Write a sequence for this structure.
Protein backbone atom coordinates (compact mmCIF):
# COMPACT_ATOMS: atom_id res chain seq x y z
CA UNK A 1 0.00 0.00 0.00
CA UNK A 2 2.69 2.45 1.05
CA UNK A 3 4.94 0.97 -1.62
CA UNK A 4 2.28 1.55 -4.29
CA UNK A 5 1.93 5.20 -3.34
CA UNK A 6 5.70 5.67 -3.17
CA UNK A 7 6.16 4.03 -6.58
CA UNK A 8 3.42 6.22 -8.03
CA UNK A 9 4.98 9.40 -6.66
CA UNK A 10 8.49 8.31 -7.70
CA UNK A 11 7.22 7.98 -11.28
CA UNK A 12 7.10 11.79 -11.46
CA UNK A 13 10.12 13.34 -13.18
CA UNK A 14 12.81 14.53 -10.79
CA UNK A 15 11.35 12.72 -7.77
CA UNK A 16 13.52 9.94 -6.35
CA UNK A 17 12.53 7.14 -3.98
CA UNK A 18 13.48 8.99 -0.80
CA UNK A 19 11.61 12.13 -1.78
CA UNK A 20 8.63 10.01 -2.82
CA UNK A 21 8.59 8.29 0.58
CA UNK A 22 8.83 11.65 2.30
CA UNK A 23 5.92 13.01 0.24
CA UNK A 24 3.80 9.88 0.82
CA UNK A 25 4.33 10.14 4.58
CA UNK A 26 3.56 13.86 4.39
CA UNK A 27 0.25 13.11 2.64
CA UNK A 28 -0.46 10.45 5.24
CA UNK A 29 -0.23 13.07 7.99
CA UNK A 30 -2.71 15.39 6.23
CA UNK A 31 -6.48 15.35 6.83
CA UNK A 32 -8.19 13.05 4.32
CA UNK A 33 -10.14 15.96 2.80
CA UNK A 34 -6.88 17.66 1.82
CA UNK A 35 -5.59 14.52 0.17
CA UNK A 36 -8.85 14.06 -1.73
CA UNK A 37 -8.73 17.69 -2.82
CA UNK A 38 -5.18 17.04 -4.06
CA UNK A 39 -6.06 13.93 -6.07
CA UNK A 40 -9.35 15.42 -7.33
CA UNK A 41 -7.55 18.48 -8.70
CA UNK A 42 -5.16 16.23 -10.64
CA UNK A 43 -7.92 13.93 -11.89
CA UNK A 44 -10.04 16.92 -12.91
CA UNK A 45 -7.14 18.41 -14.85
CA UNK A 46 -6.35 15.21 -16.72
CA UNK A 47 -9.95 14.09 -17.32
CA UNK A 48 -11.50 17.39 -18.33
CA UNK A 49 -8.68 19.24 -20.03
CA UNK A 50 -9.46 20.83 -23.39
CA UNK A 51 -7.42 22.91 -25.77
CA UNK A 52 -8.35 26.26 -27.26
CA UNK A 53 -9.36 25.75 -30.92
CA UNK A 54 -7.64 28.98 -31.90
CA UNK A 55 -4.33 28.98 -30.06
CA UNK A 56 -4.01 25.40 -28.64
CA UNK A 57 -3.64 26.69 -25.09
CA UNK A 58 -4.95 24.55 -22.21
CA UNK A 59 -8.49 25.69 -21.51
CA UNK A 60 -11.74 24.84 -19.75
CA UNK A 61 -13.65 25.20 -23.01
CA UNK A 62 -13.13 25.48 -26.79
CA UNK A 63 -11.96 29.07 -26.45
CA UNK A 64 -9.35 29.99 -23.87
CA UNK A 65 -9.64 33.05 -21.65
CA UNK A 66 -7.04 34.95 -23.71
CA UNK A 67 -8.64 34.29 -27.12
CA UNK A 68 -12.04 35.11 -25.59
CA UNK A 69 -10.82 38.45 -24.22
CA UNK A 70 -11.96 41.24 -26.56
CA UNK A 71 -9.68 43.79 -24.89
CA UNK A 72 -6.64 41.97 -26.26
CA UNK A 73 -5.07 42.58 -29.67
CA UNK A 74 -6.14 39.63 -31.81
CA UNK A 75 -3.98 40.76 -34.73
CA UNK A 76 -0.79 40.15 -32.77
CA UNK A 77 0.08 36.48 -32.38
CA UNK A 78 2.92 35.38 -30.16
CA UNK A 79 4.16 31.94 -31.25
CA UNK A 80 5.53 29.87 -28.35
CA UNK A 81 6.74 26.34 -27.86
CA UNK A 82 4.47 25.30 -24.99
CA UNK A 83 1.93 26.19 -22.31
CA UNK A 84 4.65 27.09 -19.81
CA UNK A 85 5.93 29.79 -22.15
CA UNK A 86 2.45 31.36 -22.36
CA UNK A 87 2.34 31.50 -18.56
CA UNK A 88 5.88 32.94 -18.40
CA UNK A 89 5.01 35.75 -20.83
CA UNK A 90 1.64 36.41 -19.16
CA UNK A 91 3.47 36.78 -15.83
CA UNK A 92 5.53 39.65 -17.27
CA UNK A 93 2.31 41.67 -17.75
CA UNK A 94 3.93 43.27 -20.85
CA UNK A 95 2.02 41.55 -23.61
CA UNK A 96 -1.56 42.20 -24.67
CA UNK A 97 -1.90 40.19 -27.86
CA UNK A 98 -2.80 36.54 -28.35
CA UNK A 99 -0.71 33.36 -28.51
CA UNK A 100 -0.17 30.32 -30.61
CA UNK A 101 1.13 27.22 -28.83
CA UNK A 102 3.18 25.02 -31.18
CA UNK A 103 3.23 22.06 -28.81
CA UNK A 104 6.95 21.52 -29.30
CA UNK A 105 9.87 22.60 -31.44
CA UNK A 106 11.43 21.20 -34.61
CA UNK A 107 14.06 18.75 -33.40
CA UNK A 108 15.39 16.03 -35.72
CA UNK A 109 17.23 14.45 -32.79
CA UNK A 110 13.99 13.99 -30.82
CA UNK A 111 12.09 13.04 -33.97
CA UNK A 112 9.87 16.13 -33.89
CA UNK A 113 9.12 17.46 -37.35
CA UNK A 114 6.97 20.40 -38.52
CA UNK A 115 3.94 18.13 -38.93
CA UNK A 116 4.01 17.31 -35.20
CA UNK A 117 3.48 20.98 -34.36
CA UNK A 118 0.42 23.19 -34.84
CA UNK A 119 2.03 25.10 -37.73
CA UNK A 120 -0.76 24.31 -40.20
CA UNK A 121 -3.26 25.79 -37.73
CA UNK A 122 -1.08 28.89 -37.39
CA UNK A 123 -0.94 29.35 -41.16
CA UNK A 124 -4.75 28.99 -41.49
CA UNK A 125 -5.23 31.45 -38.65
CA UNK A 126 -2.99 34.04 -40.33
CA UNK A 127 -4.62 33.40 -43.70
CA UNK A 128 -8.06 34.11 -42.21
CA UNK A 129 -6.88 37.28 -40.45
CA UNK A 130 -5.11 38.74 -43.52
CA UNK A 131 -8.06 37.83 -45.77
CA UNK A 132 -10.17 40.13 -43.59
CA UNK A 133 -7.66 42.92 -44.27
CA UNK A 134 -6.14 43.05 -40.77
CA UNK A 135 -2.57 44.19 -40.21
CA UNK A 136 -1.11 41.15 -38.53
CA UNK A 137 2.09 40.83 -36.53
CA UNK A 138 3.56 37.45 -35.65
CA UNK A 139 6.07 37.37 -32.80
CA UNK A 140 8.32 34.30 -32.87
CA UNK A 141 8.99 33.82 -29.16
CA UNK A 142 11.05 30.66 -29.28
CA UNK A 143 14.16 29.78 -27.32
CA UNK A 144 17.48 31.14 -28.56
CA UNK A 145 19.07 27.80 -29.35
CA UNK A 146 19.58 26.07 -32.67
CA UNK A 147 16.26 24.25 -32.57
CA UNK A 148 14.41 27.46 -31.72
CA UNK A 149 16.11 29.33 -34.56
CA UNK A 150 15.38 26.48 -36.99
CA UNK A 151 11.72 26.47 -36.02
CA UNK A 152 11.52 30.27 -36.32
CA UNK A 153 13.03 30.13 -39.78
CA UNK A 154 10.68 27.34 -40.87
CA UNK A 155 7.63 29.26 -39.67
CA UNK A 156 8.91 32.47 -41.26
CA UNK A 157 9.05 30.75 -44.64
CA UNK A 158 5.55 29.38 -44.21
CA UNK A 159 3.97 32.74 -43.34
CA UNK A 160 6.03 35.25 -45.36
CA UNK A 161 3.62 34.78 -48.29
CA UNK A 162 0.93 36.69 -46.35
CA UNK A 163 3.02 39.86 -46.05
CA UNK A 164 2.60 39.97 -42.27
CA UNK A 165 5.08 41.67 -39.97
CA UNK A 166 7.25 38.97 -38.37
CA UNK A 167 9.27 39.83 -35.28
CA UNK A 168 11.34 37.87 -32.82
CA UNK A 169 12.12 38.45 -29.15
CA UNK A 170 14.84 41.00 -28.43
CA UNK A 171 18.04 39.11 -27.75
CA UNK A 172 18.21 40.06 -24.13
CA UNK A 173 18.17 36.32 -23.66
CA UNK A 174 21.65 34.84 -23.90
CA UNK A 175 22.15 32.57 -26.90
CA UNK A 176 21.30 29.05 -25.85
CA UNK A 177 19.27 30.09 -22.80
CA UNK A 178 16.00 28.32 -22.23
CA UNK A 179 13.03 30.67 -22.38
CA UNK A 180 11.26 29.30 -19.32
CA UNK A 181 14.17 30.06 -16.98
CA UNK A 182 14.46 33.72 -17.92
CA UNK A 183 13.54 36.18 -15.19
CA UNK A 184 10.39 38.24 -15.71
CA UNK A 185 12.23 41.54 -16.23
CA UNK A 186 14.44 40.18 -19.02
CA UNK A 187 11.55 38.39 -20.67
CA UNK A 188 9.30 41.47 -20.37
CA UNK A 189 11.93 43.70 -22.00
CA UNK A 190 12.54 41.21 -24.76
CA UNK A 191 8.82 41.35 -25.57
CA UNK A 192 8.85 45.17 -25.68
CA UNK A 193 12.07 45.39 -27.73
CA UNK A 194 11.09 42.71 -30.17
CA UNK A 195 12.74 43.10 -33.54
CA UNK A 196 11.84 42.49 -37.17
CA UNK A 197 12.74 38.94 -38.08
CA UNK A 198 15.60 38.97 -40.62
CA UNK A 199 16.59 35.43 -41.49
CA UNK B 1 -8.35 23.96 -13.63
CA UNK B 2 -4.61 23.94 -14.32
CA UNK B 3 -4.18 26.45 -11.50
CA UNK B 4 -6.06 24.16 -9.07
CA UNK B 5 -3.80 21.24 -9.91
CA UNK B 6 -0.67 23.38 -9.69
CA UNK B 7 -1.75 24.80 -6.32
CA UNK B 8 -2.49 21.29 -5.05
CA UNK B 9 0.92 20.00 -6.14
CA UNK B 10 2.70 23.10 -4.82
CA UNK B 11 1.19 22.38 -1.38
CA UNK B 12 3.62 19.45 -1.08
CA UNK B 13 6.71 20.21 1.00
CA UNK B 14 9.73 21.20 -1.08
CA UNK B 15 7.73 21.70 -4.29
CA UNK B 16 7.65 25.28 -5.60
CA UNK B 17 5.29 26.78 -8.17
CA UNK B 18 7.54 26.14 -11.17
CA UNK B 19 8.13 22.51 -10.24
CA UNK B 20 4.40 22.10 -9.59
CA UNK B 21 3.57 23.46 -13.04
CA UNK B 22 6.16 21.18 -14.57
CA UNK B 23 4.70 18.16 -12.76
CA UNK B 24 1.11 19.11 -13.66
CA UNK B 25 2.04 19.39 -17.35
CA UNK B 26 3.91 16.09 -17.09
CA UNK B 27 0.79 14.41 -15.69
CA UNK B 28 -1.26 16.00 -18.45
CA UNK B 29 0.93 14.30 -21.05
CA UNK B 30 0.46 10.87 -19.47
CA UNK B 31 -2.32 8.42 -20.42
CA UNK B 32 -5.37 8.93 -18.18
CA UNK B 33 -5.02 5.40 -16.76
CA UNK B 34 -1.56 6.26 -15.41
CA UNK B 35 -2.86 9.41 -13.76
CA UNK B 36 -5.77 7.52 -12.20
CA UNK B 37 -3.38 4.85 -10.98
CA UNK B 38 -1.30 7.63 -9.43
CA UNK B 39 -4.21 9.30 -7.63
CA UNK B 40 -5.80 5.97 -6.65
CA UNK B 41 -2.57 4.82 -4.99
CA UNK B 42 -2.47 8.01 -2.91
CA UNK B 43 -6.17 7.86 -2.03
CA UNK B 44 -5.85 4.18 -1.12
CA UNK B 45 -2.90 4.90 1.16
CA UNK B 46 -4.63 7.74 3.00
CA UNK B 47 -8.09 6.17 3.19
CA UNK B 48 -7.16 2.63 4.13
CA UNK B 49 -3.98 3.01 6.16
CA UNK B 50 -3.83 1.10 9.45
CA UNK B 51 -1.14 0.70 12.06
CA UNK B 52 0.26 -2.53 13.45
CA UNK B 53 -1.13 -3.04 16.99
CA UNK B 54 2.19 -4.41 18.17
CA UNK B 55 4.83 -2.11 16.68
CA UNK B 56 2.80 0.86 15.31
CA UNK B 57 4.24 0.40 11.82
CA UNK B 58 2.09 1.33 8.81
CA UNK B 59 0.27 -1.81 7.76
CA UNK B 60 -2.55 -3.20 5.64
CA UNK B 61 -4.02 -4.93 8.68
CA UNK B 62 -3.79 -5.07 12.49
CA UNK B 63 -0.50 -6.96 12.30
CA UNK B 64 2.27 -5.75 10.01
CA UNK B 65 4.27 -8.08 7.78
CA UNK B 66 7.28 -7.94 10.12
CA UNK B 67 5.36 -8.73 13.34
CA UNK B 68 3.50 -11.49 11.46
CA UNK B 69 6.73 -13.09 10.23
CA UNK B 70 7.55 -16.10 12.45
CA UNK B 71 11.07 -16.39 11.04
CA UNK B 72 12.02 -13.11 12.72
CA UNK B 73 13.29 -12.78 16.27
CA UNK B 74 10.37 -11.43 18.28
CA UNK B 75 12.49 -11.06 21.43
CA UNK B 76 14.62 -8.35 19.83
CA UNK B 77 12.87 -5.01 19.53
CA UNK B 78 14.46 -2.16 17.61
CA UNK B 79 13.00 1.16 18.80
CA UNK B 80 12.90 3.82 16.08
CA UNK B 81 11.50 7.30 15.70
CA UNK B 82 9.36 6.79 12.60
CA UNK B 83 8.30 4.63 9.66
CA UNK B 84 11.13 5.93 7.48
CA UNK B 85 13.67 4.56 9.96
CA UNK B 86 12.09 1.09 9.80
CA UNK B 87 12.43 1.17 6.02
CA UNK B 88 16.03 2.42 6.25
CA UNK B 89 17.03 -0.42 8.57
CA UNK B 90 15.11 -3.02 6.55
CA UNK B 91 16.99 -1.86 3.46
CA UNK B 92 20.30 -2.77 5.10
CA UNK B 93 19.19 -6.42 5.24
CA UNK B 94 21.21 -6.77 8.49
CA UNK B 95 18.40 -6.94 11.03
CA UNK B 96 16.10 -9.85 11.70
CA UNK B 97 14.23 -8.78 14.84
CA UNK B 98 11.09 -6.66 15.19
CA UNK B 99 10.55 -2.93 15.55
CA UNK B 100 8.75 -0.42 17.71
CA UNK B 101 7.82 2.89 16.07
CA UNK B 102 7.70 5.70 18.62
CA UNK B 103 5.96 8.12 16.26
CA UNK B 104 8.35 10.95 17.16
CA UNK B 105 11.06 11.91 19.58
CA UNK B 106 11.03 13.76 22.91
CA UNK B 107 11.49 17.41 21.98
CA UNK B 108 10.48 20.15 24.44
CA UNK B 109 11.05 22.76 21.70
CA UNK B 110 8.50 21.11 19.40
CA UNK B 111 6.19 20.35 22.35
CA UNK B 112 6.59 16.59 22.01
CA UNK B 113 6.60 14.85 25.40
CA UNK B 114 6.84 11.14 26.31
CA UNK B 115 3.04 10.82 26.39
CA UNK B 116 2.88 11.76 22.68
CA UNK B 117 4.97 8.73 21.80
CA UNK B 118 4.12 5.02 21.95
CA UNK B 119 6.34 4.44 25.01
CA UNK B 120 3.51 3.00 27.16
CA UNK B 121 2.85 0.44 24.43
CA UNK B 122 6.55 -0.43 24.34
CA UNK B 123 6.64 -0.93 28.10
CA UNK B 124 3.54 -3.20 28.00
CA UNK B 125 5.04 -5.17 25.15
CA UNK B 126 8.30 -5.74 27.05
CA UNK B 127 6.36 -6.59 30.24
CA UNK B 128 4.40 -9.27 28.38
CA UNK B 129 7.52 -10.76 26.77
CA UNK B 130 9.54 -10.91 30.02
CA UNK B 131 6.55 -12.32 31.92
CA UNK B 132 6.68 -15.26 29.52
CA UNK B 133 10.34 -15.78 30.49
CA UNK B 134 11.88 -14.62 27.19
CA UNK B 135 15.33 -13.07 27.02
CA UNK B 136 14.56 -9.72 25.52
CA UNK B 137 16.89 -7.23 23.87
CA UNK B 138 15.83 -3.67 23.15
CA UNK B 139 17.91 -1.75 20.59
CA UNK B 140 17.53 2.00 20.90
CA UNK B 141 18.04 3.06 17.27
CA UNK B 142 17.44 6.79 17.60
CA UNK B 143 19.35 9.62 15.98
CA UNK B 144 22.63 10.70 17.59
CA UNK B 145 21.52 14.21 18.52
CA UNK B 146 20.49 15.60 21.89
CA UNK B 147 16.81 14.79 21.41
CA UNK B 148 17.61 11.23 20.38
CA UNK B 149 19.90 10.74 23.40
CA UNK B 150 17.26 12.23 25.73
CA UNK B 151 14.61 9.90 24.35
CA UNK B 152 16.95 6.90 24.64
CA UNK B 153 17.70 7.76 28.25
CA UNK B 154 14.00 8.24 29.07
CA UNK B 155 13.09 4.87 27.55
CA UNK B 156 16.05 3.20 29.28
CA UNK B 157 14.73 4.36 32.64
CA UNK B 158 11.24 3.09 31.85
CA UNK B 159 12.36 -0.39 30.82
CA UNK B 160 15.40 -1.08 33.05
CA UNK B 161 13.05 -2.52 35.71
CA UNK B 162 12.45 -5.57 33.48
CA UNK B 163 16.12 -6.58 33.43
CA UNK B 164 16.22 -6.66 29.64
CA UNK B 165 19.38 -6.12 27.62
CA UNK B 166 19.37 -2.58 26.27
CA UNK B 167 21.70 -1.65 23.41
CA UNK B 168 22.14 1.32 21.18
CA UNK B 169 23.42 1.65 17.62
CA UNK B 170 27.19 1.58 17.21
CA UNK B 171 28.38 5.15 16.90
CA UNK B 172 29.44 4.81 13.32
CA UNK B 173 26.99 7.63 12.86
CA UNK B 174 28.58 11.00 13.47
CA UNK B 175 27.19 12.81 16.49
CA UNK B 176 24.31 14.99 15.32
CA UNK B 177 23.74 13.06 12.09
CA UNK B 178 20.18 12.29 11.14
CA UNK B 179 19.51 8.55 10.97
CA UNK B 180 17.55 8.63 7.74
CA UNK B 181 20.43 10.15 5.74
CA UNK B 182 23.00 7.53 6.74
CA UNK B 183 24.18 5.26 3.91
CA UNK B 184 23.14 1.62 4.08
CA UNK B 185 26.64 0.32 4.83
CA UNK B 186 27.16 2.59 7.85
CA UNK B 187 23.68 1.90 9.13
CA UNK B 188 24.05 -1.85 8.59
CA UNK B 189 27.37 -1.89 10.50
CA UNK B 190 25.94 0.14 13.32
CA UNK B 191 23.19 -2.47 13.70
CA UNK B 192 25.74 -5.31 13.83
CA UNK B 193 28.12 -3.50 16.22
CA UNK B 194 25.39 -2.31 18.53
CA UNK B 195 26.61 -1.75 22.08
CA UNK B 196 25.23 -2.12 25.59
CA UNK B 197 23.48 1.09 26.57
CA UNK B 198 25.43 2.78 29.38
CA UNK B 199 23.75 6.02 30.35
Amino acid sequence: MLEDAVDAIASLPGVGNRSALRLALHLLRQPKENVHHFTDAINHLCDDVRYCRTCMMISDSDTCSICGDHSRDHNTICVVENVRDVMSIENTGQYHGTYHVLGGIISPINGTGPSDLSITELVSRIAALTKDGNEVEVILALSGDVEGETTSFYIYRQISQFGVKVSSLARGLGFGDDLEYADELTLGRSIINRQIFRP
